[in-house]
Amino acid sequence: MAEIKKIYRVFISSCTRLLESERRILSGSILDAGHLPVQMESNFSSSNITYSLETDMKKIEESDCVIVILSYLYGEQIGSKINECSKCPFYTKKAKIPNCLNCHSATKNFCQLSFTQFEYEYAKLIGKPLIVIFNRKCDDISSFKDANNVYSQGGHGNCEEDFYKLRSNNQQFVQTATIKHVNPYTTPEEFIRVCSTAVKTAEQLIFDKEQESDHEYGLIPYLHYYHAKDAKKTAHLRLENLQNHSIETVYDNQKEAIESILIDSSNLYFGENGKIAPIKVLAIRGDSFVKMGHDWCKFILDDEFKDDEHIPIEFILGNDQNETLISGRYSAFKKKNNASNEDYLKFKDRYQDEMRKVHDTILKEGCSLFLHSEARLPFRMVFIGKYLYLSSFANDKKAAETPVMKIKSSSSLYEVCAEYYDWVKKSSFPHPLYAHTREEAK
């Protein structure tokens, strides 16, 4: 499944007056990037005026980041619409927030924060990524008058009184907000470029937030959800198949597994298609499969038992030069607290000698031989005919004493084990004498 392209919810915070065009442009930039703009257009005609503030906070909480646009106007103050501020998240904190002091007074209960600054401060309080876009000339009287004339000529009213009345509030807010992740603009053309930059910054900040916490951001398109459901269903069916149909029998040890094969050895080497299937063995050293007198040897190397039927045989065994493997086997078998280096070297020489004898036997029998570099295999695998005989090694048991699972080749577990076998083989290399031996056989 392709990498998920998340849709982020970007809350746009600004005074609406004199910024209608800018809000549309920013909203378009967010949509162009494949994300969702969220805008709080409060309806204060409702009798439940407190609900608007709570809704404002909820929308910010549900958004993934907040982009604030600052320009000439500070914006409408919360106190002009909401007289009771006890539910404000800053009411009991007495935080050092510019314009956020009067409602803590015993004689005054009028919040001087604008809705825009409230949204900025609340987003900062709850840790939302914040990006600020601001007009470099936000305090320039001449620039304001030009913008106000255009606005009033469009039939939207005059903003001159609000500009002068709350000019100092706006100055304090801009000074506080334009510290980090700031995108200044002057001209309309520059504003368009700044919006694109701000959205990219928002994407990066949200990504960084996701990396540093378990909190998930963004919305996942339904198509990805559909594929995830489908993959989950497939995995569930595969697991069900694994539990109900994969393992035919579990033997307590190697001896029981081998005895069961001796009881019914008819068509032992035939696969699902009724044809001879190659024998494949994955192990650490392989002496259990080649030492004369061992029962595995009967099934794998004894041509007489196989009625002289030619069956391809492939071994993947440990590399006798793998120092990590040898030292690990030494620790497992010797278990000496005060073992000397001389003890280890003797063990190493003997162990390597036994491994080379196994390799020689396998090559003389005309089998394929590959050497893996794994230091420890969690499984020993023997693929014969329609079945895999799988042993899971335990630290406190010898290989011959570990349980053996008889697994059908038609099952999902067999498929997984075959994939694991192939993965080990790909990282292995042919025994140096393997190619030479094949030439001699010809």
For the report, how would you describe the main beta sheet?
A: 8 strands, mixed
Fourth-tier CATH superfamily name of the largest domain: Toll/interleukin-1 receptor homology (TIR) domain
What is the level 1 CATH name of the largest domain?
Alpha Beta
Please tell me the total number of domains.
2
Number of strands: 13
Order of strands, widest sheet:
6-12-11-10-7-8-9-13
Structural class: alpha/beta
> Uncertain spans, ≥5 residues at pLDDT below 50?
42-49
Helix content: 40-55%
* Overall 3D form: elongated
**What's the Cα radius of gyration?**
38 Å
The end-to-end distance, rounded to whole angstroms, is: 48 Å
| Topology as a string of helices (H) and strands (E) | EHEHEHEHHHEHHEHEHHEHHEEEEHEH
Mean pLDDT: 83
Enter the CATH topology name of the largest domain.
Answer: Rossmann fold
Task: Give the helix/strand layout.
Elements (H helix, E strand, L loop, with lengths): L8 E5 L6 H13 L3 E4 L9 H14 L2 E6 L44 H11 L4 E6 L5 H13 L6 H6 L1 H11 L4 E4 L2 H25 L9 H25 E5 L2 H10 L15 E4 L4 H4 L4 H7 L11 E6 L4 H12 L6 H24 L3 E5 L6 E6 L2 E6 L11 E5 L3 H15 L2 E2 L3 H8 L1
Parallel strand pairs: 1-2, 1-3, 3-4, 4-5, 7-8, 8-9
Antiparallel strand pairs: 6-12, 7-10, 9-13, 10-11, 11-12
